[in-house]
Predict the 3D structure of the following.
Amino acid sequence: MDPQLPPPPPVPSLTPTPGELAHEQRRGGRSALLGLGLVGLLALTSPVIGYVEDVRRAREELLTRLSSMARVQADALSVHLGVLEAELARVSGHPALFPEDGTSPAEEALLDSAFYHSSLFSEGVALLGPDGKRLWSDPPGMSLGDSPVTQRPWFRRMVERHAPEIDLLEREGGPLVVAVPMMGSGRLRGVLMGEVRAGALPTRTTAGTTQLLMDERGRFLLPSPRGASPPEASERLRALAEVPGPLNLSGNPLVGAAAWVGRSGLLLVVLEEETATADLRARLLRQLAFHVALLVSTLVVLILLFRRSYRSLLAAEDRLRRQETMAALGTAAALIAHEVKNALNGIQAALSVLRHTAAGSELPVRALRSQVERLGHLARSLLSFGSPRAALRRSCELRLLAQDALQAVSMLPESEVVELRTSLEEGLMVQGDAALLVSAIDNLVRNAVEAGAVARDTGLRTEPWVSVSLTREGEEGVLVVEDNAGGVDPGLEPRLWEPFATGRAKGIGLGLPMARSSVEAHGGSLTYLRRPQGSRFTLRLPLERTP
């Protein structure tokens, strides 16, 4: 008997495959997009850098203006408060005033002539005794606050220092009090004080500008209209006297500067919303919109050119595919010739043995049956692949179709060494072509049985088995063919469903592609899953709807 010839080597392809062309195309597209992205990044970076520099310059100009405004306003307020203090000091030093023993008509006349309806003190002037009691005031009902005057921080400081004090009268919001002590023989004889409303102070604001006047304890004489409380704002506002800059009060972004008002301990703060950058931001948005429009138009042109080249590539790809198909057909022809030659050699050898043995000998009959079955399956596969026929739909029961395929497979010599386990549910009806579906199931089970026989011959499995189960899942019939033969070669998995892709010596790689085509033609699906012990193929078909 002639020895089995090894299969001829595949014919190498000298032309690039469609996959290689697609890879080159994707790489070229990525390179073009990367280049366009870099150009776009450079185009967008320039206006952003210019915007950042313009914002920095505009903010510096704004801070310079606010710092100058704060200094000028603080100097004007310091001069005004100095005038008030000097006026009170002038009168308090008059030799005719003796507040420690009350006031006489002459003293009251002196005070009336000095301060009656004075425009310097908008709230009035008062003379207090050393115990803080009112001795005289203009107007007579002038408010001195709710708490005793002697308990006020400014009164205690004035007594301790023997120096005039400028502070809030009692609580935040004013009025402002200017108090001058009247000393004699090292003791306090009385206090001459004047009160000024915040609105009467020489502070001027412009549109969009807010001024705050704050004492040493963080209380506001000119309260912030934005509702900033002293605990939140005092420290940051004091820092503006050293370094003007941006700050946030109650969620409002502002820019500010501050200056101390002479020796009064008051801090004048000037705040303004940062509107100087609004025009710069609008200009940046216009520049970005122009650059984006330019990039989009460039991208559109690039896409049009890319589509044109892609169509040209598709045409070239189609020509290469035809060439690859012809090369594959040449390889298939060599494989077919090899298989037919080996099968014929086997038949010839079996006939030679049959000639010298009894007519009922089982060995030659089994060999003849195996080789004839191989040739028959090969012929059927080639015929189905070369000229597939149209499907003839009719109502079929999946269990009967599976049994037909199993009966055909049971005639294989390999089925004698592979355990076949079946579990087929009845009553699952489908609309389909019985011949195509039986052929699809036959291919799945045949491949599993042959793989199990190979696994046994190579020592991979001592007891190979194939499991075929048919169940219902919702509106689908599910046929699962599973084996323990180790699974498909991982290098073959990506091409598992391609024609002529096979990892077995017995086969040309047409069974699985034809099986999937047949199943998908019936609206179903055929999938593969690698299991720890082997392969699992799952065939799903939509069941026939019963009225």
Remarks:
- The first helix runs from residue 18 to 92.
- The two ends are 61 Å apart (CA to CA).
- The chain has nine helices and 16 strands.
- Residues 1-5, 7-15 have pLDDT under 50 and may be disordered.
